[in-house]
Amino acid sequence: MMKNITVITGGSGGIGISVVRRFLEKDDIVIVLDMNEIKDEKIISNKNFYFMKIDVTNPSDIENAKKYIEKEFNKIDNIISMAGVNMKSEIGGMETVTIEDIDKSIKLNLNSHIYLVKILLDLLKNNENNNKTITIISSINAITDYGLPAYSAAKSGLYGFMKSIARQMGNLGIRVNTLVLGSVPHNDEIIENNEYFENKLIKLAGKEFVRPVDVADTLYALIYNIKGIVGQNIILDRGQSI
């Protein structure tokens, strides 16, 4: 029986590495699509790990990835679309954000996810697996005031996109959801005496940050253990958005 194929964008980031590890542990074949290569030797040496250097904002790059996946595996079981980051000029809000960065933010944080689903859909659709999934990573910027105007608009757009395709995807046997994250310090980031994180910590009802391993465990559970969740905006933020 062929192993499940899980495609992950943004897999080289601080959260992404934990997600890649989790699905390799499950013995999935994991294909990471990213601009930045993963340097973790344990991941690189895993026979089930594949990496393609692509720009997810470029549909032609995604088309090339599709051709490779189709040739090698002829299917996809799971898409985890994680690529995204805010632009530096957004930090000061509308007064500082540049027109160029507005375009870049929308293209990366919204358009790239839509491109990915559109282009890879056939590899999901033609797969006879009865547990196929698309999970898009969003942010609490979509549901509360945390500034970053273009980034927040894009993340809100992901929820609208997910809701607009959930029924259609369900008819194709594909479960689609968004996972909404609050602040997630990466494993190598220092929290204590860090003004940024200390200010965020005050707003956490759980008084502890979600960590990358929590994101990985939640994604794994959502895809493989909790199969009744469809078309939902699942918030993972330790109460930060309350």
Strand content: 15-25%
Helix count from the secondary structure assignment: 7
Structural class: alpha/beta
Oligomer description: single chain
* Rg calc: 17 Å
Shape: globular
Q: What is the strand tally?
A: 7
What are the low-pLDDT stretches, counting only 5+ consecutive residues below 50? none
- Helices and strands, in order, run as EHEHEHEHEHEHHE
Distance between the termini: 45 Å
> Which strand order do you get reading across the main beta sheet?
3-2-1-4-5-6-7
Proportion of residues in helical segments: 40-55%
Q: What's the average pLDDT?
A: 92
- Main β sheet profile: 7 strands, parallel
How would you describe this structure to a colleague?
It is a single chain. 42% of the residues lie in helices and 17% in strands. The chain has 7 helices and 7 strands, in the order βαβαβαβαβαβααβ. Helix 1 packs across helix 7 (212-225). The protein is of the alpha/beta class and 242 residues long. Strand 2, helix 2 (41-44) and strand 3 form a beta-alpha-beta unit.
